[in-house]
Specification:
With 282 residues, the protein is an all-alpha fold. Helix content is 67%, strand content 0%. It contains 10 helices and no strands. The chain has helices at residues 10-44, 58-75, 79-104, 114-144, 157-173, 177-182, 185-204, 214-232, 248-254, 268-278.
Length: 282
């Protein structure tokens, strides 16, 4: 069997991209308010609620505060660029991954080795990150602009893209790209783990991976996501709505703020730690 026999068809790639995008839209819409809170926590640290403390339910209190100050729209900031990015994101990811998979597959095996899986997942993750980085920059700016006083808010995804390109140039659109690329370790861990779990479950049931039950696929997806997120959390920003990982460090680089200053990937971790200590609630 030649490597060409493993090559994915255009229709298969489109189906995978469409299914991933549709699932991503549903998931992103459902968890968007929690995503907004997570991004703000990672960028600005723990907030002080209106009563002057952060006692009680921080998540519920933060949701109430956002709703009171910014309305329902504030709870769904960043959903637009997320939705726009999902289809090209998945299309690029599956195209690159399956092309690499077809090149790396040996003639006598139906599944990739761990090393080949890591290479395929990393290559696909890197390509996806480069292709969609500007939309994730916009998402971060939209989700955090409610906490930045004195900054003219972006009206929409397109206006944000235009303003960033005009005011900051290409560098602004690709801010946070280096730590994002450095963090493809998330994908390099998650996707091979996902494939290995599916292969193990299929072997136990004496079937093929494409015939696994929805429960088995859910188990493989959940376990691999939790495993990868736990190992790479300091760099991670949510969500398997996109296979391209985002990171706490890149979030600080992606946002536009005068304090604190993050000059590079290597200076960001120490700056985050120092700033976090200063802003810890007493």
């Amino acid at each position: 069997m030649s490597a060409d026999s493993h090559a994915p068809s255009p229709r298969g790639l489109l189906c995978n991209a469409g299914a991933g995008a549709a699932a991503g839209v549903i998931a992103a819409t459902f968890v968007c308010p929690l995503d907004v809170i997570k991004i703000r926590f990672q960028v600005h640290g723990l907030p002080k609620l209106d009563n002057g403390s952060i006692k009680g339910s921080l998540i519920v209190g933060s949701l109430e505060q956002i709703f009171q100050k910014e309305g329902l729209r504030g709870m769904y900031r960043g959903l637009g660029p997320t939705v726009l990015a999902l289809l090209p994101n998945w299309a690029v990811y599956f195209s690159i991954y399956e092309q690499l998979e077809s090149r790396l597959s040996s003639n006598d095996e139906n599944h990739l080795s761990v090393g080949a899986n890591v290479i395929a997942a990393s290559g696909a993750g890197a390509a996806t990150t480069i292709f969609t980085n500007s939309l994730w920059v916009v998402k971060t700016r939209l989700q955090t602009q409610g906490m930045r006083a004195g900054v003219v808010p972006y009206r929409s995804t397109l206006s944000a893209l235009g303003r960033i390109a005009h005011e900051e140039g290409i560098r602004g659109l690709y801010s946070g790209l280096v730590p994002a690329l450095a963090g493809i370790s998330h994908v390099a861990i998650q996707f091979p783990t996902y494939e290995k779990i599916k292969y193990h479950l299929a072997s136990q049931d004496n079937t093929t991976m494409d015939k696994l039950s929805a429960r088995d696929v859910a188990v493989a997806s959940s376990v691999s996501k939790i495993f990868a997120s736990t190992l790479t959390y300091p760099h991670e920003h949510p969500s398997f709505s996109s296979p391209s990982p985002r990171f706490a460090i890149s979030l600080h680089l992606q946002r536009k703020s005068s304090s604190p200053a993050y000059s590079s990937l290597f200076s960001s971790p120490s700056t985050v730690i120092r700033y976090g200590r200063k802003t810890q609630p007493s």
